[in-house]
Amino acid sequence: MRLRTLLALVFAACALIVTFAGTVLVSRFVAVRVQIRAEARMADLADHLRQTIDANIAERLGDMAVLSSVAQTTAATADARRAWVDAMRQSYPAYAWIGFTDRRGFVIASTGGLLEGESVTARPWFRAGLYHPVVVDVHEAALLAQKLPALPYGEPKRFVDVAAPMRDASGGTVGVVGGHLSVRWMREISRAAIASALARDPSVSAMILASDGTVVLGPGDQDGERLQADLPALAALAAGAERASARGPWPDGHEYFTGASRAQGTAEQPTLPWTIVVRQPVEIAQTISGPILNQLILGGAVFALLFALLGWWAAEHLAGPLRKLATAASGIGHAPDGARLPAPRGYVEIAELTGALTGLLARLGERDRALAGANADLERRVLERTAELTEACGRAEAAQAHAEAGERAKSEFLATMSHEVRTPLNAIVGFGDLLADDTGLSPAQRRCVDQMRVGCEVLTSVVNDILDFARIEADSITLEAAPFRPRSFVEDTLALVRGSAERKGLDLRIEEGPEDHRVVGDVTRLRQVLLNLVNNAVKFTAQGSVTVALTQVAEHDGIALRVTVRDTGIGIPVEAQARLFTRFVQADSSTTRRFGGTGLGLAIAKGLIEAMGGAMGLESQDGAGSTFWFRLKLPSAPEVEPVTGPAQAVVPSGSDAFTPARLLLVEDTAINREIAQMVLEAVGYRVDVACNGQEAVTLVQTRTYDLVQMDVEMPVMDGRTAMRCIRGLDGAARDVPIVAMTAHVLPEQVAELRAAGANGHISKPFDRAQLRAVIERSLAVARGQASAAA
């Protein structure tokens, strides 16, 4: 922003601020003065109206006194008196009725002869008028209600009564003279009393209130209403003041300046106990301040304009030398090094500024030269650093590639090791099972066969443990999610170990609560963990008991399970407990020598529980038994379980009901091919054999098979390629069930077999019952699909 513009705005803003402040102060002053004047004016009007009404009432009492005295000085005939009151009414039409009564209260003469001969002894004006002059407050017409003509617009007949006693020459009361003044008389008096104020401001209104606050005479339809005693100005009168003024709200929601005056009568000069109220709306009274404020705002605007012009002129006068200096400095910015500003002219301050700028230019030149040198050095260092980073990135990429290659090599090694170990194990287990079926074995031979089978089972368990631990370390463990009941899973697991415990003379117990919720989780992995803990407890307990405790607690986000395995065995030293869940570690070397084992079981169990989001721990003392526990939270499953029965194999009907299934066995290893063929034929299947995948594809196209049992790793054509070829055939051959028989058991390997076309798989070494179950299940599914298609 230019200096002259800034100064013009500053000067104008100052002028506006001063004007605004003055306007606020003056407006407040005017508002206060308007309120004081308006309240005083309303009080003066109320007092004036009260004095006017008091004076008029005094005049009417004088009329009664005149009639009373005249009645005693002239002939007292009824006609004469009637003529007097008619004359009085003609001279003052506000009288609705004037009459004379005798001492007994009978009307003896009146205007128009109304009520003559009737008794008025019950009327207040007669009873009080027997003793002294009296004024009676506003009341509805009683005896005259039906005798006087109706008023316009149905207005009720209301009167103010004045009366005085008639006395004889001795001073005794001989009767009463009284008059009824119409309420319209008061309205005319009020209008006349404040006529000048109404002429200036029609918003001014007056009210006459009775002693109880009832509106005797008021604007609009307020007659007869009762006002609250705490209205503006009325509260001060209630406290004893004769007149008051105030500002405040009224029941109609508007705010008024209000003045009030209370009538003050005496015994010699009675009057009505009325309160006179005059009010004016505040918003109308304050309109007087509007022109003043408008003049102030207009004057402030003119004042601000003049100050803005003054600021513009002053800025132009001050900024001229600065602008010349800025133009010269701008030219120097494009000049070669060594240029100088022109000699300073004008004010001292301008000269000082010019000198300061000259020194600054010199220092900037020095800095530019230093910066140029620094930039050159920086470019050199950046190039060196870039080369170092490039080399480091290359080393990091090489290290990452080496690590990835190592990981792949480890996975390939595990897969190869599993395949190479399981393949010969398959033959050992298979022939061992066949030998076990031979009833001609001697006891020594049978013991050797049993020991051989136990060794195979141990070796298979070790291989499985190694693979499980490798999956846990690689964070590639796959967990299933199926509904089950924790109590059933615990009881089924203990059933597998009960025989071992009974052979050692141990008491295998279970402690369960009444709860048995239905949860969702991997029951196979949980059984593996519990089986490991219970097997360890049985293994390391020579006598006593092994107790498994199960607790189930329902929470808002699932079921909290805690399983505890307590034994009375050898216990674990405190210093050995910290490393017990480490791989290939047992409490001490003697434990391995005495009880055997790889030291992987607890590490795998802990890894599985943590993979499920739980925790595992132990409590033990050397020689006092051990307590292993794990806890985890599982989602709850619906309690309504589908009614299911055991899987039923689909048996063909008709003549083919007892025809044995024809199977194609594809296996490249002769010993595995021989054992598998012997096992399958022993079950009752008709078996054809093929030595590689290419032979299997050819046989499937030439013969009809109920199922193909396919090895995976084979020469010429492997099992994966053969399965893809079979699935790509035309006709019924493409749908033949295929069961992969392989030593590859990693989840990703099984998924690869499924993708190639396998309906199921069985891992080597296989159990005969397991092999038969897989084949029967696959045959049952295929037959069920065929029946559904038919």
UniProtKB/TrEMBL annotation:
GO terms for molecular function: phosphorelay sensor kinase activity. It catalyses: ATP + protein L-histidine = ADP + protein N-phospho-L-histidine. The chain crosses the membrane at residues 296-315. Keywords: Membrane, Phosphoprotein, Transmembrane, Transmembrane helix, Two-component regulatory system. Signal peptide: none annotated. The modification 4-aspartylphosphate is found at residue 711. InterPro entries: CheY-like_superfamily (IPR011006), HATPase_C_sf (IPR036890), HATPase_dom (IPR003594), His_kinase_dom (IPR005467), HisK_dim/P_dom (IPR003661), HisK_dim/P_sf (IPR036097), Sig_transdc_His_kin-like_C (IPR004358), Sig_transdc_resp-reg_receiver (IPR001789). SMART domains: HATPase_c (SM00387), HisKA (SM00388), REC (SM00448). This is histidine kinase. Pfam families: HATPase_c (PF02518), HisKA (PF00512), Response_reg (PF00072). Its EC number is 2.7.13.3. The keyword Transmembrane applies. Residues 416-636 form the Histidine kinase domain. Residues 662-779 form the Response regulatory domain. The keyword Cytoplasm does not apply. It is an enzyme of class 2 (transferase). It comes from Methylobacterium tardum.
